[in-house]
Amino acid sequence: TRGQERLSMAESEGLMPQDLINAKPVAAAVKEFFGSSQLSQFMDQNNPLSEITHKRRVSALGPGGLTRERAGFEVRDVHPTHYGRVCPIETPEGPNIGLINSLAAYARTNQYGFLESPYRVVKEGLVTDEIVFLSAIEEADHVIAQASAAMNDKQELIDELVAVRHLNEFTVKAPADVTLMDVSPKQVVSVAASLIPFLEHDDANRALMGSNMQRQAVPTLRADKPLVGTGMERNVARDSGVCVVARRGGVIDSVDASRIVV
């Protein structure tokens, strides 16, 4: 190859990396991805939530993926393995329904690119503080209790039969059979869906529309705090990176176009 020719010809003293490697194809590939790829998008900056949601989007479209026309019903449908990894609520309503999803609140990718969800380890009915991240394949054999399962002060499961997930089915088992437990009730849904108060009492279609419409809210002239929240608002504001965060606590003395005095 040309690289080997260059190596054999060049004197080893003054050799630089750019003498061996042709950077043009690498630069072209990077420029092509950021310039014209379907998955390189202009960030949605309507409000802090729209930013953070756009960054947490999971798509089945794009290079190496599906096309809207070819995707059937099965690909778009909610699957048991979505639990704790991909939100079953937040998805577009149009032709992209089920093809564009949102990452669940606690999900992360592992070194192989699979989505993992966190669980608390349960030993003989005792819920420990040890956390394990498992992919859908790894969790299939486990008996996983709900985050809302009743416990006493010693963190022991107290119900005779506990509602669990096992082999991708919902069933009930004795506390001694439980091996894992959900970390939080909101680990099933995305950040946007977890901002809806009393989400569990909402119709799924309305929750979907609510999750999508929160991203379209525009800043108000005189902002007023809501009467009811879920506790996720702080995380969204902080993690979206649009807010100024004080290093230590204090009282805000004055606010100006150029400075905030604490």
TrEMBL record:
Gene3D superfamilies documented for this protein: 3.90.1100.10, DNA-directed RNA polymerase, beta subunit, external 1 domain
Q: Where would one find coiled-coil regions in this protein?
A: none
InterPro entries from the UniProt entry: DNA-dir_RNA_pol_bsu_ext_1_sf, DNA-dir_RNA_pol_bsu_external_1, DNA-dir_RNA_pol_su2, RNA_pol_Rpb2_3
- Enumerate the transmembrane spans: none
Major enzyme class: transferase
Q: Is ATP-binding included in the keywords of this UniProt record?
A: no
Q: Where is the RNA polymerase Rpb2 domain?
A: 41-108
The Swiss-Prot or TrEMBL record describes its family as follows: Belongs to the RNA polymerase beta chain family.
UniProt-recorded name of the protein? DNA-directed RNA polymerase
Q: Please give the organism.
A: Pseudomonas viridiflava (Phytomonas viridiflava)
